[in-house]
Write a structure and sequence with these properties.
CATH class of one domain: Alpha Beta
Strand order of the largest sheet: 15-12-14-13-17-18-16
Oligomer: single chain
CATH topology of one domain: Uridine Diphospho-n-acetylenolpyruvylglucosamine Reductase, domain 3
Structural class: alpha+beta
Bound molecules: flavin-adenine dinucleotide
Number of helices: 16
Distance between the termini: 19 Å
Radius of gyration: 23 Å
Helix content: 25-40%
Shape: globular
Length: 458
């Protein structure tokens, strides 16, 4: 199926009988945008389908299996690993018209949502009812619940609240062939049978198309406060992290910014920290007002030789979080090109990992910005380079290879958040053992025996 360039005329006709005209895109200008995502690779889809109902998704999946046409599920295209690029050819199935919050229950602490709902919209709909949907990828205002489920998205609050998988109670999934599979249950606790819900979460559109989800909600924290703490060096910053956990504190977010990041930010805009600041932590606590104030006091006690600190509450916290958000635009001061990875390592190995990453960058004549969710050992590694330099791809490839070796050698993971897609595929065989890979292939064959769903990914 990979060498074909387009649908056959008969296939276009039969697809047109299944879907209304406004649910099918066939011309290159209409299809163009669906050929890429934030991973920045491109392949033109044979067609794009935009079903409005679950029944239409089922009919498309039935048709696709009959015709052996690859189907690439897609939501908002914000994944950074080219997970929805149709590189083998096939049709892109956009889930964005399935975008209703069907219900939210204050008594059950659950929401029933369709996959195309923007994550922020669910957070807001929960918030106005005094409820809380904690997963908060930095892309929260533009990504969708369906995409978050398919990538098991995490975010800054993962250290305290976990990741998307921890909030998915059950799913409705359309399988290749069109069958509708229901997994899980509408309750917070359920241990009946194998956990197909967890299997679907993070499967990057390779096992089925998620068309509905039961989501777990929490009570909305009443109050939150954020602290920016700067240190002369990263040893003191990381010692403070150990002290924080050692004191029994569990912040809602705990971000680490080493020296290169502070320097890069200082060259980009006015920054509050003194010149001798060589590392920073951004720490958020949430809960009842009294307990947050107590936690903030305990946090202050846990800091090892801070050279600067600032605290804010309510909307004022934004001024601190804004500094963290500036890292991405500021990073391009160091190069026009960026190769990003999101590795994770055991928390105790963070310093070793950061030093190793610096060495790898130096050996490959690249600059690097490494920072991240230090509370869960998840580091964003950005190799920065001049993309007009000839042969630069070889340096990047070699640096990424060495990075994966380093991370795996420390007992870590080659992806803590973003998934595999096409971008991590060259490395993904290295992490699970041969037997685990064989079981994964077997599971794929059970759900998708003809390999029509997002083929060639994961
Ligand atoms: C600026 C920026 C910041 C980011 N920050 C974070 C972060 O903090 N944490 C994090 O985890 N990620 C982050 N990401 C990555 C990205 O936002 C997440 O991977 C997100 O979950 C993707 O959602 P989406 O709606 O864009 O899905 P898409 O990118 O459209 O799709 C992602 C994957 O899901 C599959 N898929 C989509 N919908 C369905 C469906 N209904 N059924 C089955 N499979 C489906 C696709 O085939 C693809 O494999 C960031 C990205 C950007 C650009």
């Amino acid at each position: 199926m990979g060498d074909r360039m387009s649908l056959k005329k008969s296939q276009i006709k039969s697809l047109g009988r299944i879907l209304p005209q406004d649910c099918l895109l066939l011309t290159p200008p209409e299809k163009l945008i669906y050929g890429t995502d934030a991973g920045r690779r491109f392949a033109m889809p044979w067609a794009v389908v935009l079903p409005k109902t679950v029944q239409q998704v089922r009919m498309v999946m039935h048709w696709a299996l009959q015709e052996r046409v690859p189907v690439i599920p897609r939501a908002r295209g914000t994944n950074v690993v080219s997970a929805c690029v149709p590189h083998t050819g096939g049709i892109v199935l956009s889930c964005l018209r399935l975008n209703r919050i069907v219900s939210i229950s204050n008594r059950d602490f659950t929401a029933c949502v369709q996959p195309g709902v923007i994550t922020y919209e669910l957070q807001e709909a929960a918030r106005v009812r005094g409820l809380f949907y904690p997963p908060d990828p930095a892309s929260v205002r533009v990504c969708s619940i369906g995409g978050n489920i398919a990538t098991n998205a995490g975010g800054m609050r993962a250290v305290k609240y976990g990741v998307t998988r921890d909030y998915v109670l059950g799913l409705e999934v359309v399988l290749p062939g069109g069958e509708l599979l229901m997994t899980g249950a509408r309750v917070h606790k359920n241990v009946v049978g194998l956990d197909l819900t967890s299997l679907m979460v993070g499967s990057e559109g390779c096992l089925g198309v998620v068309v509905g989800a039961w989501i777990k909600l929490l009570p909305l924290p009443q109050y939150a406060a954020t602290m920016l703490a700067c240190f002369e060096n990263e040893e003191h910053a990381l010692e403070s992290v150990d002290n924080i956990f050692g004191a029994g504190l569990l912040p809602a977010a705990l971000e680490f910014l080493p020296r290169e990041v502070l320097e890069c930010l200082s060259g980009y805009a006015d920054m509050p920290w003194p010149h001798n600041a060589g590392a920073a932590l951004v720490i958020q606590c949430d809960g009842l007002e009294g307990s947050v104030k107590q936690e903030m006091a305990a946090l202050r006690q846990s800091l090892a030789n801070p050279v600067y600190s600032d605290e804010a509450e309510h909307k004022e916290q934004e001024r601190i979080w804004e500094l963290r958000r500036l890292i991405n635009p500021a990073s391009f001061r160091l190069g026009t090109g960026k190769a990003s990875d999101d590795v994770s390592v055991p928390r105790g190995s963070l310093l070793q990992a950061i030093r190793g990453i610096r060495r790898i960058a130096g050996d490959n004549s690249l600059q690097v910005l490494v920072f991240g969710h230090v509370g869960d050992g998840n580091l964003h590694v950005n190799f920065m380079y001049d993309d007009s330099l000839q042969g630069i791809e070889l340096h990047i490839r070699s640096a990424r290879e060495e990075l994966m070796d380093l991370v795996l050698g420390l007992g870590g993971s080659i992806s803590g958040e973003h998934g595999v897609g096409l971008s991590k595929k060259p490395f993904s065989g290295r992490q699970p053992g041969a037997l685990a890979l064989e079981y994964m292939r077997g599971i794929k064959r059970v759900f998708d025996p003809e390999n029509i769903l997002n083929p060639g990914k994961l």
